[in-house]
Amino acid sequence: MFSTKKSAEKILQFYKNELRRQISKTTSVTNSDSMAPRLDQQNIKSTQNEETGPKRLLKLQKYHRFLSTLTPQQMPLAARGLAVSKDQSREFMACFPDIVRDLTETGKHIDVPEASKWLAKLLQYNVPNGKKNRGLATVLAYKMLEKQDNLTPENIHLANIMGWCTEMFHTHQLILNDIMEGTEIRRGVPCWYRQPNVGLGGINDATLIQSAMFSTLKRNFSNKPYYKNVIEMFNEMLLKCAIGQHMMSLMAKTDKPDLSLFTMEKYEVLTKYRTSYYTFQMPVGLALLMTGVDDPETHRQAKTILLEMGEFFQIQDDFLDCFGEPAVIGKNGTDIQDGKCTWLAVVALQRANKAQRQLMEDHYGSSKPEDVQKIKNLYEELQLPHTYSVYEEATYDLLRTQIQQVTRGLPHDLFFKILDNIFRRSI
């Protein structure tokens, strides 16, 4: 569509700058670069004095434009997971027992049968019980990228196995993150390290899952021409996630959050490394490799769009953590209590006057219900739900424009499908 890559990127930058300018006109608060996306999440019980349910939603909608993220019948990816057919979901789940059996069969590690039994328990408790966004996205991308003649039962089965390897990658990250952050509940049940006889042994269990992932990749893909590139991608993502976790640790060195570190620049980098790379780029990147596409420029173009989607996904999750209904989104948000560097906190600090900043200093990171409510009230006073709603709509349009500018033969439908899953449009 464009004569050179440079001219295309200049036009995209123009769109982004225009988006920031238009957003700033929708609020009375100046000097905010809030329209640069991001995320994080967790859980706790709602307080009795909080407004909940339809009443709270009506309150928000009364003075903010329509918030599709808060509409239960079209809850987005951050709350509900990837929308796929029941057949696809069943096909994906049916593959998991075979993977566990291959990893723990009697003939393996025959001199330590208790280790195989433990690995089976570890995998079954942790891997298959989430939303499975990354695994299902890997299969979806493969089916949309592969030539029809190559969509054989064998190749589709391999795509499902690759999807489960991304889920094992994700589980490895979650187990380590839960230990480092002291998380208590994951997916509605106690975190693995809080199980009897686990504790800090969960660190070794995370290593077991990582090893199981690489073993599964070797068993199923070592004779494929793309195996080397796949292994390199998994290793690259491990490094990126470790860097992201290191950055998170630097920002949480004390009990009280250091709000001077809550800048949009740090937030963007943090969320990109901790989540966006392996949640959005990795599944599509693996599918491209499986279909024989290893052209760097094709992967670069896909990465550019997918990281933009990942950034919005992160902000969406931040927003839901604070303003979403626990009964609908399946969790109680604790970002405020945990003192997390979220998009809402960063934008609030950008906009706050001296008194409002002092309120953040005094109450952000406290688990007292009255302190949490003061922060939420401040967010509304600073018009953050309104800003988010404008951002949501404008970002959807911007991403559609970016998708239409993709070249190198990448199917636009794949990116539109992922985009509509994030925004829950026309699903």
From TrEMBL:
Lineage top rank: taxon: Eukaryota
Record keyword Electron transport present: no
Entries under InterPro entries matching the protein: FPS1-like (IPR039702), Isoprenoid_synthase_dom_sf (IPR008949), Polyprenyl_synt (IPR000092), Polyprenyl_synt_CS (IPR033749)
Pathway note: Pheromone biosynthesis
Protein known as: Farnesyl pyrophosphate synthase
Organism: Euphydryas editha (Edith's checkerspot)
Required co-factors: Mg(2+)
Family: Belongs to the FPP/GGPP synthase family.
Biased composition (Polar residues): 25-51
Any Pfam family hit: polyprenyl_synt
GO annotation terms (biological process): farnesyl diphosphate biosynthetic process; pheromone biosynthetic process
Any one of the GO CC terms: cytoplasm
The entry's keywords: Isoprene biosynthesis, Magnesium, Metal-binding, Transferase
A GO molecular function held by the record: dimethylallyltranstransferase activity
Residues covered by region (Disordered): 25-54
